[in-house]
Amino acid sequence: MIRFAALFDALDRTTKTNAKVAALAEYFREAPEADRLWTIALLSGRRPKRAVTSTELRIWAAEAAGLPLWLVEEAYPVVGDLAETIALILPAAGQTSDRPLATWITDLIALTGQPAAARRSFILAAWDQLATAERFLFNKLITGGFRMGVSRGLMTRALAEATGIAESALAHRLMGDWSPQTTSYARLIAPDDPQADAAKPYPFALAAALEAEPGSLGQPGDWLAEWKWDGIRGQLIHRPGAFALWSRGEELITDRFPEFAPLADFLPMGTVIDGEVLAWHAAGDGAPQPFAALQKRIGRLNVSKKLLAEAPARMLAYDLLEDAGQDIRARPLAERRARLAAIIAALPGGMALALSPPVMADDWAGVATLRATARDRNAEGLMLKRLSSPYHLGRKRGDWWKWKLDPHTVDAVMIYAQAGSGRRATLYTDFTFAVRDGDDLVPFTKAYSGLTDAEFRQITDWVRRNTLERFGPVRRVPPELVFELAFEGIQASPRHKSGIALRFPRMIRWRRDKPVAEIDTLDTLRALLAGQRGFSTPAPPEDI
């Protein structure tokens, strides 16, 4: 654990990419193989299941530190991180230990399901043999909130430097459904076993936001414009011994979308397709439903017949990554799309797979005119892809751009405030907002991002001076501060008093110039909701 703590410290002390890569590469060369494996897992989002609750940790830490529980509870929001709070309040370790990272994690996994007394005894003994820095990381492993300030791409780059294996090959090997409990470090970085990796997806190519005018990209004929659909990005894989659907978050979601199962009988063997899974209108009018319809199916292992009928799934295919068992990602997009179109054209009718249609216009002005209709199609805007481009690894600027519509906006008043976490633990950054409904103010959303630290400090001073009531960490304040909020979508929500919920709300401006009397109304939001395809204006629920 000492070596792992030193790595964490080295990464935490710098913002320079090359320094982070060098520190990781050195660790991957010198650490025990089991520790390397678990480090790769942690940095790619594969964490052990929690064996101890946060409540238990707070109680046991208070006992070990000889402090009343209420004092620990008060210290937590000030520090902003439970793992760090506990590491700081515990007394000095009574002994020293340098057990490997992998051993600690194995013991934590074995702790799952054990009686509370056994779990308490193990945690207290662990705390008593770890220094503060190692305790902090140990606590992070327990709570599951692990962050090291390293992207998956940067980690893969460092691993490539340490092993001499091409970054693109490693990125592919790290995809899919693996865990340190089912593989070894040597096997993970070894050349792919075609049989073992039959269902493994490729790393997804990503686009950067277009900030310049599209005319700066050159001739429109050099580009493919297509709709940026608002669904679940996925890869559909048909290889010998495997038919699988993966989400971009590397979740195997095949069983959640039985509509795609018939494709296993008709897609050519050795086919991998990149596309967007959408909920489709059952009436077959050629249009996707809003994301909210698909959201009802996300997270459900068993989808009811009623839901299958209301929100049938369909994939609109963007790209072909593998054809007849050959990786064609390096081929030009124009060729990949032509092959994809041929595969889809050969399918029988009624399949839940179609080609994402190109957006055709003579010039960029015409493309912009079509882009303005995106919301009518339940799309977020356009994707612009250079026809000569390969299928990139991750996000590379220059060849793929997302040209989204401007978000919806609403002016609302803050009515509750809560402190943030981490470096913003001493600032009020998490706000609840309301809009007018007649003479009343109705809460309808929360937001915590979009403002500068300087603005958050000003608002924090105002909250402290104007708090009306306290509800634990939440402060009720006078409805005086008005903000402009941006959001990507709106949907009906019977769980909320307002009857609506926003998608990706964030603050874009503190409206110091606007009084509360001029904020938007609930009727404005209901009208926006009613204007979306597939929705009618919801009746407000009786209670929140």
UniProtKB/TrEMBL annotation:
<dbReference type="InterPro" id="IPR012309">
    <property type="entry name" value="DNA_ligase_ATP-dep_C"/>
</dbReference>
<keyword id="KW-0436">Ligase</keyword>
<keyword id="KW-0235">DNA replication</keyword>
<dbReference type="GO" id="GO:0006310">
    <property type="term" value="P:DNA recombination"/>
</dbReference>
<keyword id="KW-0131">Cell cycle</keyword>
<dbReference type="Pfam" id="PF04675">
    <property type="entry name" value="DNA_ligase_A_N"/>
</dbReference>
<protein>
    <recommendedName>
        <fullName>DNA ligase (ATP)</fullName>
        <ecNumber>6.5.1.1</ecNumber>
    </recommendedName>
</protein>
<dbReference type="GO" id="GO:0006281">
    <property type="term" value="P:DNA repair"/>
</dbReference>
<dbReference type="GO" id="GO:0003677">
    <property type="term" value="F:DNA binding"/>
</dbReference>
<dbReference type="InterPro" id="IPR012308">
    <property type="entry name" value="DNA_ligase_ATP-dep_N"/>
</dbReference>
<dbReference type="InterPro" id="IPR036599">
    <property type="entry name" value="DNA_ligase_N_sf"/>
</dbReference>
<dbReference type="Pfam" id="PF01068">
    <property type="entry name" value="DNA_ligase_A_M"/>
</dbReference>
<keyword id="KW-0233">DNA recombination</keyword>
<keyword id="KW-0227">DNA damage</keyword>
<keyword id="KW-0234">DNA repair</keyword>
<dbReference type="GO" id="GO:0051301">
    <property type="term" value="P:cell division"/>
</dbReference>
<dbReference type="InterPro" id="IPR050191">
    <property type="entry name" value="ATP-dep_DNA_ligase"/>
</dbReference>
<dbReference type="GO" id="GO:0005524">
    <property type="term" value="F:ATP binding"/>
</dbReference>
<dbReference type="GO" id="GO:0046872">
    <property type="term" value="F:metal ion binding"/>
</dbReference>
<dbReference type="GO" id="GO:0006260">
    <property type="term" value="P:DNA replication"/>
</dbReference>
<keyword id="KW-0547">Nucleotide-binding</keyword>
<keyword id="KW-0132">Cell division</keyword>
<dbReference type="Pfam" id="PF04679">
    <property type="entry name" value="DNA_ligase_A_C"/>
</dbReference>
<dbReference type="InterPro" id="IPR012310">
    <property type="entry name" value="DNA_ligase_ATP-dep_cent"/>
</dbReference>
<keyword id="KW-0479">Metal-binding</keyword>
<dbReference type="InterPro" id="IPR012340">
    <property type="entry name" value="NA-bd_OB-fold"/>
</dbReference>
<dbReference type="GO" id="GO:0003910">
    <property type="term" value="F:DNA ligase (ATP) activity"/>
</dbReference>
<keyword id="KW-0460">Magnesium</keyword>
<dbReference type="InterPro" id="IPR026333">
    <property type="entry name" value="ATP_dep_DNA_lig_pp_1105_fam"/>
</dbReference>
<dbReference type="InterPro" id="IPR016059">
    <property type="entry name" value="DNA_ligase_ATP-dep_CS"/>
</dbReference>
<keyword id="KW-0067">ATP-binding</keyword>
<feature type="domain" description="ATP-dependent DNA ligase family profile">
    <location>
        <begin position="306"/>
        <end position="437"/>
    </location>
</feature>
